[in-house]
Amino acid sequence: MKRLISITGPTASGKTTLAVTLAQKHGLEVLSFDSRQFYREIPIGTAQPTQEEQKGIKHWFISSHSIWQPLDVMSFRQQAMPVLQQALETKGGLVLVGGSGLYLQALLYGLDAMPDIAPELRRNIRSWPLERLQEYLAEKDPVFFDQVDRQNPVRLMRAVEVMEQSGRPFSSFRTQETPQWNWDARHEVYHLEPERSELRHRMQQRLASMLRAGLREEAMQWKEAAHLSPLKTVGYREWYEMPQASPEKVAAAILTHTAQYAKRQSTWFRKFWEIHPYDHLQRLSSGPGTGC
């Protein structure tokens, strides 16, 4: 039986290491659905796995695109579909790993077509301050508001535009009542979620490692591109929004925002996916290989 194995979870939960372990064990490749790790210019702040960490396993959609040509969810689906289909045909399966649940949902189930936005409406909404965008979505689409990065104005503006144009909640375009499974493969979703104190400790360690590796320098190198969506994310925007703050204060803000986003990631995955027990995952990664 062909197999798709999805490894999900918040940042710093250990997804990459496990994905590589499973790919080695079953003779598979890895496809990332982490919407931040697509971009080759920002490897440090997006925690892209190094060549050493990839251990010779072919990884798709890691450092594969430029920040100057952001990859939206539908473009990701169009480009990733042939990779997935080829992997099923030639390898009998694929390991999918990441924390951007919408990208995984789009790849496996598809999404409703978004409406075209009237130019006047777009200009109006793009003048809204962040607080107004947040209040609008909290009231009119709490499902989406619960999982989105609330400090990312690009994501919030896009949702408000679609809602104002269509008269529908943004989340209604993304969550089908009865998702149709059209793949000739079994799909298993495993969600990694360490205890809160352990996850916080991992986040602290990862951030410290990023800072030593040059996170601040990487962010400031691309300051002129701060208006692009890949740089309006945790780990970058804090340097641009707090130019007078000490590095310690910026780091504290990054850690806080990372923890907040991780909580929303876990909430979203648990709402949408049927999650397999962790002990099942341990058996999957430690037992004899099947070759899928």
Tell me what you see in this structure.
With 292 residues, the chain is an alpha/beta fold. The protein contains 13 helices and five strands. The chain is globular and about 50 Å long.
How does the SSE layout of this entry go?
Layout: E1 3-8, H1 15-26, E2 30-32, H2 51-54, E3 59-60, H3 73-90, E4 93-97, H4 101-109, H5 119-125, H6 130-140, H7 142-147, H8 153-166, E5 186-191, H9 196-213, H10 215-221, H11 237-241, H12 247-272, H13 278-286
Helix pairs in contact: 3-4, 6-8, 9-12
Give the structure's gist in a few sentences.
This protein has 292 residues and is α/β, with parallel strands linked by helices.
Low-confidence stretches: 287-292
Distance between the termini: 7 Å
Total of domains: 2
CATH level 1 name of the largest domain: Alpha Beta
Could you name the key traits of this structure?
Rossmann fold; disordered C terminus; 5 strands; single chain; 13 helices; 292 residues; alpha/beta; 5-stranded parallel sheet
